[in-house]
Amino acid sequence: MTIDFEKIFIETEALMRGHFILSSGKHSDTYFQCAKVLQYPKYLNLFAQELYKKFENLNFDKVISPAIGGIVLGTEVGRRFDKRTIFCERESGKMSLRRGFSIEKGEKFLIIEDVLSTGGSIQEVIKLINSIGGEVVGIGVIVDRSLMPIHLHENFQSLCKLKAQIFEKENIPNSLKSIVPIKPGTNKK
């Protein structure tokens, strides 16, 4: 069975068109608000099951997700693997562990995130894990919307690749300049 991910995103209004400021500070003509699709149990289950299948033979200790987008999906993937699931969040602009979460030296992690755009959030999570002595053994996302290939890890898996144009603040095309930008992400840079 082939899954039409774009159709699911359109049906749930998770795929939006307009002028958006991404969490990286860059601008885009398309935004994927995965929370809108993950609110439906059938799609949350579907995406978690598909990611489970991609990593079912992977040996790891915990699932970790960057807040806030990856938390719901990461928790469901962790449940399928019967693994502890934690998340990290930005504190004073830096990705950190809070709420009593910890990383032990030598622990192996599967990172689960909703959308890959620039790779910034995932790279911050990798840096955090490595700085404490943990090890990343896999990375899974629902949507890879990056313009160019981003090498994050040799075991990177996405469920789908959707194209979106991403622009630096200084290079926004005239077609977007006339649209008031919306900043739907969680990182208010």
Radius of gyration: 16 Å
CATH third-tier fold name? Rossmann fold
Widest sheet, order of strands? 5-4-3-6-7-8
The CATH architecture assignment turns out to be 3-Layer(aba) Sandwich
Number of domains: 1
Strand content: 25-35%
Which tags fit this structure?
Rossmann fold; three-stranded antiparallel β-sheet; globular; alpha/beta; 189 residues; six-stranded mixed β-sheet
Give the gist of this structure.
The chain is α/β, with parallel strands linked by helices and 189 residues long. The chain has six helices and nine strands, in the order αββααβαβββαβββα. The chain has helices at 5-11, 34-38, 41-55, 71-81, 120-132, 174-177, and strands at 15-21, 27-32, 62-66, 84-91, 94-96, 108-116, 135-144, 156-161, 166-167.
SSE topology:
Elements: H1 5-11, E1 15-21, E2 27-32, H2 34-38, H3 41-55, E3 62-66, H4 71-81, E4 84-91, E5 94-96, E6 108-116, H5 120-132, E7 135-144, E8 156-161, E9 166-167, H6 174-177
Helix pairs in contact: 3-4
Q: Could you walk me through the main structural features you see in this protein, from its secondary elements to its overall organization?
A:
It is built from 6 helices and 9 strands; from the N terminus they run H-E-E-H-H-E-H-E-E-E-H-E-E-E-H. The protein is of the alpha/beta class. It has a single domain (5-177), classed as 3-Layer(aba) Sandwich (Rossmann fold), CATH 3.40.50. Helix 3 (41-55) packs across helix 4. The model has no long low-confidence stretch (mean pLDDT 91).
